[in-house]
Amino acid sequence: MSHEPGESPTKWVADHVRKYVESDGAKGHIFHGAPTLLITTIGRRSGLPRRTALIYGRDGERYLVVGSNGGADEHPLWFHNLLAQPQVRVQVGAEVFEAVARPATSEERPRLWEIMAEMWPTYTGYQRKAAREIPVVVIERNTP
Protein backbone atom coordinates (compact mmCIF):
# COMPACT_ATOMS: atom_id res chain seq x y z
CA MET A 1 0.00 0.00 0.00
CA SER A 2 1.27 3.42 -0.77
CA HIS A 3 0.46 6.96 0.15
CA GLU A 4 0.89 10.41 -1.33
CA PRO A 5 4.42 11.88 -1.21
CA GLY A 6 4.93 13.81 1.99
CA GLU A 7 1.84 12.29 3.62
CA SER A 8 2.49 10.44 6.84
CA PRO A 9 1.67 6.72 6.79
CA THR A 10 -0.34 7.23 9.97
CA LYS A 11 -2.61 9.72 8.19
CA TRP A 12 -3.42 7.61 5.13
CA VAL A 13 -4.01 4.52 7.26
CA ALA A 14 -6.31 6.53 9.56
CA ASP A 15 -8.16 7.93 6.50
CA HIS A 16 -8.55 4.43 5.03
CA VAL A 17 -9.88 3.02 8.31
CA ARG A 18 -12.29 5.94 8.77
CA LYS A 19 -13.74 5.57 5.25
CA TYR A 20 -14.01 1.79 5.71
CA VAL A 21 -15.91 2.10 9.00
CA GLU A 22 -18.16 4.99 7.88
CA SER A 23 -19.21 3.13 4.71
CA ASP A 24 -19.50 -0.37 6.26
CA GLY A 25 -16.66 -1.42 4.00
CA ALA A 26 -18.22 -0.12 0.77
CA LYS A 27 -15.27 2.30 0.55
CA GLY A 28 -11.94 0.76 1.44
CA HIS A 29 -12.65 -2.97 1.24
CA ILE A 30 -10.80 -2.99 -2.09
CA PHE A 31 -7.66 -0.86 -1.83
CA HIS A 32 -5.26 -0.58 -4.78
CA GLY A 33 -6.90 -3.69 -6.23
CA ALA A 34 -6.51 -5.87 -3.12
CA PRO A 35 -9.10 -6.83 -0.51
CA THR A 36 -8.54 -5.34 2.92
CA LEU A 37 -9.95 -6.02 6.33
CA LEU A 38 -9.83 -4.07 9.56
CA ILE A 39 -8.28 -5.75 12.55
CA THR A 40 -8.66 -4.37 16.05
CA THR A 41 -6.08 -5.50 18.57
CA ILE A 42 -5.72 -4.44 22.20
CA GLY A 43 -2.65 -2.31 22.86
CA ARG A 44 -0.27 -4.38 24.96
CA ARG A 45 0.82 -1.32 26.93
CA SER A 46 -2.19 0.98 26.77
CA GLY A 47 -4.97 -1.63 26.95
CA LEU A 48 -6.82 0.45 24.34
CA PRO A 49 -8.27 -0.88 21.08
CA ARG A 50 -6.02 -0.30 18.06
CA ARG A 51 -7.46 -0.71 14.56
CA THR A 52 -5.61 -0.98 11.27
CA ALA A 53 -6.38 -1.97 7.68
CA LEU A 54 -4.52 -4.91 6.16
CA ILE A 55 -4.56 -6.75 2.86
CA TYR A 56 -6.01 -10.21 3.38
CA GLY A 57 -6.12 -13.56 1.68
CA ARG A 58 -8.08 -16.70 2.42
CA ASP A 59 -7.15 -20.25 3.30
CA GLY A 60 -10.48 -22.03 3.43
CA GLU A 61 -12.48 -20.32 6.18
CA ARG A 62 -9.38 -18.67 7.64
CA TYR A 63 -8.23 -15.15 6.86
CA LEU A 64 -4.54 -14.44 6.28
CA VAL A 65 -2.67 -11.17 6.80
CA VAL A 66 1.03 -10.32 6.65
CA GLY A 67 3.06 -8.42 9.24
CA SER A 68 5.22 -6.73 6.60
CA ASN A 69 5.57 -3.26 8.13
CA GLY A 70 6.72 -2.16 4.68
CA GLY A 71 9.78 -4.41 4.94
CA ALA A 72 11.09 -2.68 8.07
CA ASP A 73 13.34 -4.66 10.38
CA GLU A 74 10.74 -4.46 13.17
CA HIS A 75 7.39 -6.19 13.33
CA PRO A 76 4.38 -3.84 13.15
CA LEU A 77 2.84 -2.78 16.46
CA TRP A 78 -0.43 -4.61 15.71
CA PHE A 79 1.53 -7.86 15.47
CA HIS A 80 3.10 -7.35 18.91
CA ASN A 81 -0.39 -6.58 20.26
CA LEU A 82 -1.91 -9.81 18.97
CA LEU A 83 0.99 -11.85 20.36
CA ALA A 84 0.13 -10.43 23.78
CA GLN A 85 -3.65 -10.76 23.27
CA PRO A 86 -4.73 -13.00 20.37
CA GLN A 87 -8.47 -12.17 20.69
CA VAL A 88 -9.19 -9.63 17.95
CA ARG A 89 -12.16 -8.01 16.25
CA VAL A 90 -12.25 -8.16 12.47
CA GLN A 91 -14.30 -6.28 9.90
CA VAL A 92 -14.51 -7.63 6.35
CA GLY A 93 -16.73 -5.36 4.30
CA ALA A 94 -19.87 -4.81 6.42
CA GLU A 95 -19.36 -7.97 8.50
CA VAL A 96 -17.79 -7.62 11.97
CA PHE A 97 -16.79 -10.63 14.05
CA GLU A 98 -14.61 -11.76 16.93
CA ALA A 99 -11.64 -13.97 16.11
CA VAL A 100 -8.34 -15.41 17.28
CA ALA A 101 -5.17 -14.38 15.47
CA ARG A 102 -1.85 -16.21 15.61
CA PRO A 103 1.35 -16.38 13.61
CA ALA A 104 1.47 -19.24 11.11
CA THR A 105 3.55 -22.17 12.31
CA SER A 106 6.89 -22.83 10.63
CA GLU A 107 5.27 -25.80 8.90
CA GLU A 108 2.33 -23.87 7.43
CA ARG A 109 4.06 -20.54 6.72
CA PRO A 110 5.68 -21.40 3.33
CA ARG A 111 2.34 -22.37 1.74
CA LEU A 112 0.49 -19.43 3.30
CA TRP A 113 3.29 -17.01 2.33
CA GLU A 114 2.89 -18.11 -1.29
CA ILE A 115 -0.85 -17.36 -1.18
CA MET A 116 -0.18 -13.85 0.08
CA ALA A 117 2.85 -13.12 -2.13
CA GLU A 118 0.84 -14.15 -5.19
CA MET A 119 -1.94 -11.73 -4.37
CA TRP A 120 0.40 -8.87 -3.32
CA PRO A 121 3.84 -9.41 -4.96
CA THR A 122 5.31 -6.42 -3.10
CA TYR A 123 5.60 -8.70 -0.04
CA THR A 124 8.43 -10.58 -1.79
CA GLY A 125 10.45 -7.38 -2.06
CA TYR A 126 9.70 -6.52 1.54
CA GLN A 127 10.98 -9.93 2.65
CA ARG A 128 14.21 -9.46 0.68
CA LYS A 129 14.97 -6.16 2.41
CA ALA A 130 13.83 -7.13 5.93
CA ALA A 131 16.32 -8.55 8.42
CA ARG A 132 13.57 -10.74 9.89
CA GLU A 133 11.16 -13.36 8.71
CA ILE A 134 7.95 -11.50 7.92
CA PRO A 135 5.10 -13.30 9.68
CA VAL A 136 1.93 -14.56 8.10
CA VAL A 137 -0.94 -14.30 10.57
CA VAL A 138 -3.85 -16.73 10.58
CA ILE A 139 -7.19 -15.34 11.74
CA GLU A 140 -9.89 -17.80 12.73
CA ARG A 141 -13.41 -16.72 13.52
CA ASN A 142 -14.60 -17.52 17.05
CA THR A 143 -17.20 -20.28 17.03
CA PRO A 144 -20.38 -19.61 19.01
Automatic annotation (TrEMBL):
<dbReference type="GO" id="GO:0005886">
    <property type="term" value="C:plasma membrane"/>
</dbReference>
<protein>
    <submittedName>
        <fullName>Deazaflavin-dependent oxidoreductase, nitroreductase family</fullName>
    </submittedName>
</protein>
<dbReference type="InterPro" id="IPR012349">
    <property type="entry name" value="Split_barrel_FMN-bd"/>
</dbReference>
<dbReference type="GO" id="GO:0016491">
    <property type="term" value="F:oxidoreductase activity"/>
</dbReference>
<dbReference type="GO" id="GO:0070967">
    <property type="term" value="F:coenzyme F420 binding"/>
</dbReference>
<comment type="similarity">
    <text>Belongs to the F420H(2)-dependent quinone reductase family.</text>
</comment>
<dbReference type="InterPro" id="IPR004378">
    <property type="entry name" value="F420H2_quin_Rdtase"/>
</dbReference>
<dbReference type="Pfam" id="PF04075">
    <property type="entry name" value="F420H2_quin_red"/>
</dbReference>
